[in-house]
Structures are given as structure tokens and as C-alpha cells.
Amino acid sequence: MQNIDKDIRKSATLPTSFYKSQAQFEKSIESIFASSWLYVGDLADVNTPSHVYPFTLLENVLDEPLVISCDKQSNLRCLSNVCTHRGKIIVEKAAKMPLLRCGYHGRCFRLDGSFKSTPGFENAENFPSPADDLTEVSLKETMGLVFASLAPKMSFEEVFQPILDRLSWLPLNDLIYNSANSKDYYIDAHWALYCDNYLEGFHIPFVHPALNAALEGDAYSYEIFPYCNLQLGIAKEGEPCFDIPEGAADYGKKILAYYYWVFPNLMFNFYPWGLSLNIIQPLSHNKTKVTFRSYFYKGQNATGVENILDQTELEDEAVVESVQLGIQSRFYKAGRFSPSMEKGVHHFHQLITKFMK
Ligand code: FES
Ligand SMILES: [Fe+2]
Hints:
- By secondary structure, the protein is an alpha+beta fold.
- It folds into two domains: 16-32 and 161-356, Naphthalene 1,2-dioxygenase Alpha Subunit, Chain A, domain 1; 38-142, Rieske Iron-sulfur Protein.
- The chain is built from eight helices and 17 strands.
- It has helices spanning 16-20, 22-33, 156-166, 191-198, 204-207, 209-214, 305-326, 343-356, and strands at residues 38-42, 51-57, 64-70, 76-80, 95-96, 100-101, 108-109, 115-117, 136-142, 145-149, 175-187, 221-224, 228-234, 255-262, 266-271, 274-284, 287-297.
- The N and C termini lie close together (7 Å).
- The mean pLDDT is 96.
- Bound molecules: FE2/S2 (inorganic) cluster and fe (ii) ion (FE2).
């Protein structure tokens, strides 16, 4: 794939072939998703001692069977959920388990993934060997959210530290999941088109009248970090905004929202009431699942949150699905970037080409 010029004033966007081709889609899954940090769940759902929690990483796409184990000391690990004997899935559902026991021929593993015992192998040579242990996958936690990576190309800290540093004054370890304000959406478009749209506020005046009425358009700004970027939404007079303490980087600003995008498929929208986490899950080259998860800061209970987020989401879906149709045209090959308002999209396209190499 052709490089994206570092100079946004000269650069063209990704070619439509990236979004249209099944082969490029499959390559993006291996090159981008297998080597990035992916959200896998909430800490509160996987941290009961001596319990195991099976899941599939990016179902139907990466399709990797994994299991999170929580040992007696509450250490969390992410392990391959495939038995090293003949490959059966070991854990079928979350349960209390002092050992991981395969239901096919009785092989047992400790909760750290190491081989413990297996019947019938008394005469096997060079056995057991490290190949008989379960592979451990990188697992990290921040803000009460758990992330895994099959083969990380960058450290977890490189990805998340810019957010944690900037927002250290927020009660990020006291986020409480709110299922009533959480929802899945299914979109007929490529996952990266959905991200492209999120990464610029250029379209807000045209597409989101209600949101536009709350934002100070001239003050909207973009900041780029290695693996994430920030769009800072400044509130119009009379709109709700953060109460930022003295000494914080943004003290004195009337911030309506911090819109952080994390490569490749996560959006952390911090509001005065809490966090709206969006997870963009590719299903195929033209189908995407978008999950909105809402978390309130302890003691907060936002009213009307769902309506605003839902309305904005439906407006975004309509334009993204329209672009999905438009890029099938034989006349459209690529576009150009607004140097002032599409820095985030430019950043994303550069990361895509870097990972696709
Ligand atoms: S496949 Fe697990 S013990 Fe045989
Ligand atoms: Fe939008």
C-alpha cells in the first residue's frame, strides 16, 4: 500500500481499494487487529478469585479462543483456551475452577497456563515440554477496563498514557457500567470508514445540528499522540462542562467533551457525567458492529444521555453508509484532507499504512 504523505497539505486519503477489497480486509485484521490492544471486557466481570472466563477475541474475524483466569491471589492472566493435546476448547463457560481441566481426555493446566497433569502419557518421551503449556497472551487493565493483545507492536503504556496523564484529575478508577445506556448498532460499512468519520469534527455543523448547538465550533481542536488522538470539544455558554481543578492542563477551559480515539477501533468519549466507550468491531469488509458502553462516575446519574448519543450515532451511521455506497464508484479513488480539520483522519491513515506494511 502506498504511503500517506506525512505532510497533510500534500497528502491524499487512503485509496478506496483499502475499503473495498476482501483481501485487504483480511490483511487488515492480521496486520492491525492481531497486533493492537483490544478491549475485552470490564475488570468487575473477570476478577473473582479461582474463576475462569472464556471468550473469543473478535468473533468471526480474528476468532481466537481465549480464557481469562483469576487465581487465588487475584492475578489475572489471558491464556489460549485451546488444549495442547488435540486442540479441544477447554473452558466452555465462565465458572469457578481451581484448575483448567480439558473435558476430552482429562489434561489439566494451572491457572497460570502451565501444564499440570495428563493421563496416558507415562511412556511419552520429552514430555511434558513448554509446548504443552497454554500460550499466555498480553493482558492489561486501566480505568477498570481489560485489554488483550495477541502480538502487540506497541506497549500498552505508549497507547494509553497520554489519556491517563491528561485526565488524572478525573475519578477514572470509579467508573460504573450502566447497561440502560449501552447499546449495539450494526452498520453496513467498512470499520475504518466508521473511524474516519469519528476522527473529524468537520462534519458536525452539517450532520449533527443538536451537537453543533452545544459546541463552540471555532474552538474545536485536535491533538495527535503516537497511537491515539484527541478532539477537544469546547462548550457554548450555558452548556454543561467539566469542572476542571486548578493545576490540571485544561484548567480554565469550558470543556464539553474529550473525544479520544485509540488505534485501531476504540473511542473514549469523556463527558462531565462519565465515559461513553465505543468499540468498533469489524464483521466483514462491509459490515461493522458498534458497541456503545456507558460508564458513570460514582455518584453521577446522567439523564437524557442515551437520547443525545443515540441521535448522534444515527446521524453518523447515515453518512458512513452513504460513503460506503459512494466509494464503490468507478470515479472516486481517493480524496484530500482538510489541513485544519482532518488531522485525526490523516493520523489514522498513516497508522493503517504503517501496520499494513
Ligand atoms: S484434547 Fe484436551 S485432553 Fe485431549
Ligand atoms: Fe459525527
